[in-house]
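Researcher: Please predict.
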Amino acid sequence: MVTGQAGDEFHTVRYTKDLVFVTSHSFFSGGGGAEAVAVDPSGNIVVAGSSNSVKFVTVKYTPDLGFISSATFTAGGSSDRAHAVAVDGSSNVIVAGESLVGITRYFSVVKYNPSLQQTASVLYNGGVGGWQAIAFGVAVDAGGSILVTGQVQVAGHFDFLTVKFSPDLGTVQAVHRLDNLAQEDQARGIALDSAGKVIVAGKTSADGGSTYDVLVAKYDAALALQTTGAFQMGGNEAAEGVAMDFQDNACVVGTVDMGGPGDLLAVKFSPTLALISSGTVDSGAADAGHAVTVDALGNIRAVGETNDSVNPADFLTAKFIGPPIVNSSGRGQQGGAFQVITIQGENFILGDVVSFSTGSIDFNGAAPYNPEQLGFNIDIPADTAIGFYDITVTHPDGASDTLPQGFEVVYAQAITASLDQTAVATGRAGEIRIEIPAGAFPADFTLTVASPTLIPDPTPLFFAGAAMELSVVPAVGQPTSSVTIRMQYREEDIVGLDVENLCLSYYDIGLNAWENLPTVVDPALRRITATTKNFAVLALLTRISPPSNVGKIKVYPNPYKPGSGGLYDDPPNWHGIIFTGLTETARIQVVSVTGELVWEYSGATSRAQVFWDTRNRYGQLAGSGVYVYTAHDGSDGRLLRRGKFSIIR
């Protein structure tokens, strides 16, 4: 939605998300332009501006720009001009701007109900006589408090002035004046992040207004200044609007003038106001940015104007692509060169780079089929273990997104049923050798060796770190004669386990149970040999070998059932799981039943306890399931206990 001035009228235009024109509406204001637009929770459109700088004019439309109502406001002085509009969660409308009363210029704020009937208004200039204040931005927080920002002239120079009013505009809850000594600081836009912190954007000058740089300030909810950020290109740079993306980055739009006609400027700052990236739009004429919005995908839409000798003061709209979003990815094959894989997601562009949590996969290049699909080319060496890896897409400007465990590596081989065949895959622990005798299957097929997405709970046995899923395409049935499997295991996977009783087992879906296979263990080579007539999920299982102090360490609550309100809910004063009975220093690892690391801790304990908030290494809450933990003495590495617990959400 874009609004502005066309002749003596407010002119408002609706576009699709790809900036295709939909419809427009003009409203005669009596001479003056619209300066701000907002959308209420029902999709109705509210436009605010002025009539010849004499009064505020506010207009409300339906989502398709059908006229609903309008309202005007004056503060009783000689001049009133609206610059900003916001809508709260109850569809109340707040308009902010400036009013000149006598010789003093004030922040002027008016509040309307959803029918545009005035309910409150206030004038404010910082509380000091003679100060001149103009409001350019307004926002509403989750509690309904109204935040207004702009500039105030003090002692001959301008400062940022930001004010927090109560919902009824009757009380000033907080004020902050950003005074950079003798610098000229003029605030133009305001936004709130997901935590309710306040971000103000504008411009600053150290030479009395000859040249400007972008200035952004961040405050807490009480308007205590937290940090500032700046951007300059060596010319004149000014911010006019700010909006937040889904990562709480501050996206600023304004103008840059490098001595030419001027370009629309967009700048992105991190939550700490560190510079992330910037971009410009140059139509060949004089371009300027005035307002900005960010969609749910992080795409920045900037609105402004473009002027040339033929078409003075036309609307200018621009879209800047947001960060990549990775939703899903395909699978690759061990030993495959120049494999083309497709990622599904959003905001893919030319120049994107794909990387993985394993350095063994070689990236050869990528190109978007469209913004929702990215094709890339990779080599996967034969020694890359089957399993799931994090996949990351990175834009040329450094913006990136990671899908944890989003890319799967499998082993695949064509099998000729009439011949003895051997398939050699690489697992997490090393080589997996599958020896298929001639005639074991009635027809040719392709064998796939993959890492299971889920390993059913093997209680009372323990998972010993090695697992795989065997499948055949086309479905030619199970082998009629025994297939020999030789697979390695890792020393770290069997710490505290009974090695002599290691056994390769397959999961029988019909029986809903694990079935042991004839298995021979070679501890010297850390390898097992087993035979099977079942291609399914297979895992190396064994019994636990209890250490002498097995009874000292406990995990509670177990099972952990947050929100249950009972014995297994959160312990007092905590939201998570407690490991107790530990040594003075300890090392704890929590893994899934597939052997993937979920969380680890190494360091001092508190009263022999360590607390886990059940968030995994990516900061996400661990899902329902069975988890395996090992606890070691932090001083000598001695195993204290290996055990299980469950999370039920």
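Model: The chain has a mean pLDDT of 89.
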